[in-house]
Design brief:
Length: 241
């Protein structure tokens, strides 16, 4: 039975690991089935939060603006995780954001994990919903602050323990950690040439400059430029870069 591991949960600004950012990171280190240490930080994503994210998490734009710097916080988060086996609810989703950050910063990040969502789908009745809130209700676990990273972590840890107690003896293979696999490409920062072209483009067409975040990637600016060209057409004479 797995008794030493780290439970993780992230809150993000959206669903795309390439273009969205980590907003909050939470983790709990478990030793001998006892939580021995926790990690919880709001991270400044340096962008306005979608209303849906604010409503879901309760994290306001003001709270986010006062959050910690991304790189230093995630470096500390990786140090907290160490080489432990990860446990999470739909853990591949959180892993995808961590993997993208790691690749962008030339860090290796390969981990084995156990997913409570996969376990719930395997063992619980088909008609039973498998989202975190529904699993908490099913196992009688009180939710305090839904969709806050550390609260979700603590709930996931309790769900994992319940699943272990109820089902592991009869199907130990289902609880064996497996390697997480998620392929990503490094996201490079936008180039000065891209930004120069974009500025010339909006001036040529007399349109407002779109909101661009300071950490925008090269691919993000390329997509934005393509969208503007599709909407307004190319400049009659392409300026030299």
């Amino acid at each position: 039975m797995l008794t030493d591991y780290v439970v993780i949960d992230l809150e993000m600004t959206g669903l795309n690991a390439k273009t969205d950012r980590i907003l909050e990171a939470g983790a709990a280190r478990v030793r001998g089935n006892v939580v021995t240490a926790t990690f919880s930080e709001i991270i400044n994503p340096k962008r306005k939060l979608p209303e849906k994210v604010v409503s879901l998490t309760g994290i306001t734009n003001e709270m986010a603006a006062q959050g910690k710097e991304t790189d230093a916080t995630l470096a500390a988060f990786f140090d907290f995780i160490g080489e432990d086996i990860l446990v999470g609810q739909n853990v591949i989703f959180d892993y995808s954001f961590l993997k993208q950050w790691a690749v962008n910063h030339k860090r290796t990040f390969e981990r084995n994990a156990v997913d409570t969502l996969k376990l719930a789908r395997k063992f619980l009745p088909q008609e039973q919903k498998k989202d975190l809130a529904s699993l908490c209700s099913y196992f009688g676990i009180e939710r305090v602050h839904a969709h806050r990273a550390l609260d979700d972590v603590m709930e996931t840890q309790q769900i994992f323990e319940q699943l272990q107690k109820m089902y592991e003896a009869g199907a130990p293979e289902a609880f064996r950690p497996y390697p997480l696999q998620y392929k990503v490409k490094k996201q490079s920062p936008a180039t000065p040439q891209q930004m120069k072209y974009l500025k010339q483009f909006v001036e040529f067409h007399g349109i407002p400059m779109p909101e661009i975040y300071e950490d925008a990637s090269r691919s993000e600016i390329s997509r934005l430029t393509d969208q503007l060209i599709a909407q307004y057409g190319k400049m009659k004479k392409e300026p030299s870069l």
